[in-house]
Specification:
single chain, about 270 residues, alpha/beta, TIM Barrel, eight-stranded parallel β-sheet, 9 helices
């Protein structure tokens, strides 16, 4: 079974979705399950994980409704305010839905020490009780705080999104390499091969540009802790779905069937309890 571990749906709202600026015309519109299903079928993808793009429970409810109506959506990584006084009540509510698999916050938009805040750590510390994963969305400069949080909660499942968003078009940063290695030493952390095409300058790239970055991830995390994610429809700023999948498939070309199956599906099934 092939699972896309990272994609988004939204009904475009210019106020709420202000992060989609005028330079992103190709994604300034609705993207719904009916738009993704034929793409998944064409690429022989069996299912996907819908991930939050807005910091609201309204969107979390929307994604869960999408999943309930569309069996190919195998799970939802939603948003819950981890600093709220009624957090346990909200987690209990969402965890009662078997489609709710994890929580994410757009940490890349926060200060570098956001994950080190006591209220944030208190919230993350409650996820294990409900068997919920936590997706880490950070820039490279925020990796030290990500390392600290995964160390603080060794039994909590964490997933690094978009390989921490290094600038692919530039020479590989040794600081990024070092921090990825440090993060990967913690066996409770997994990594998505996702979001890479949009971390290129002017969205221009050659397929070989990604190899040294995937090499680092592959060596650090190993095939049992890596999973494919398209980041559709955000990826459309730089490449169509087929191209994003091809980058990963081409990299895996000489790997065993077992390794391919793990990265393209089995790991996501295991990590998100699909």
């Amino acid at each position: 079974m092939i699972i896309d571990s990272h994609q988004h749906f939204w009904k475009y709202d210019p106020v709420r979705d202000a992060w989609i600026d005028t330079s992103m015309d190709s994604i300034r519109k609705d993207f719904l399950p009916k738009d993704l299903l034929p793409i998944l079928k064409a690429n022989k993808i069996d299912g996907c994980i819908a991930v939050q793009a807005d910091q609201s429970e309204t969107e979390t409810e929307f994604l869960l409704q999408c999943a309930e109506k569309n069996p190919f959506i195998k799970g939802v990584v939603g948003w819950v305010d981890l600093t709220a006084n009624n957090l346990e009540e909200r987690l209990e509510y969402y965890a009662s839905n078997p489609l709710f698999k994890g929580v994410r916050h757009i940490v890349q938009a926060e200060n570098d020490d956001y994950l080190l805040r006591k209220d944030v750590q208190n919230g993350i510390g409650k996820l294990l009780k409900y068997d919920l994963a936590y997706d880490i969305l950070v820039f490279p400069n925020q990796l030290p705080s990500a390392i600290a949080i995964v160390e603080a909660f060794p039994n909590q499942k964490f997933i690094l999104d978009h390989i921490a968003k290094p600038t692919i078009s530039k020479a590989i940063s040794e600081i990024w390499v070092h921090n990825i290695k440090q993060l990967s030493k913690h066996k409770n952390v997994y990594c998505k091969l996702s979001g890479m095409v949009t971390e290129t300058i002017n969205f221009k790239f050659k397929e070989d540009d990604f190899k040294p970055y995937i090499d680092v991830i592959f060596k650090a995390f190993g095939p049992d802790r890596i999973m494919f994610g398209s980041d559709w429809p955000v990826c459309l700023l730089a490449a169509n779905y087929d191209k994003v999948l091809k980058i990963v498939n081409d990299y895996l070309e000489n790997q065993s069937i077992e390794v391919k199956n793990n990265i393209l599906g089995k790991n996501a099934i295991k990590i998100y309890n699909l």
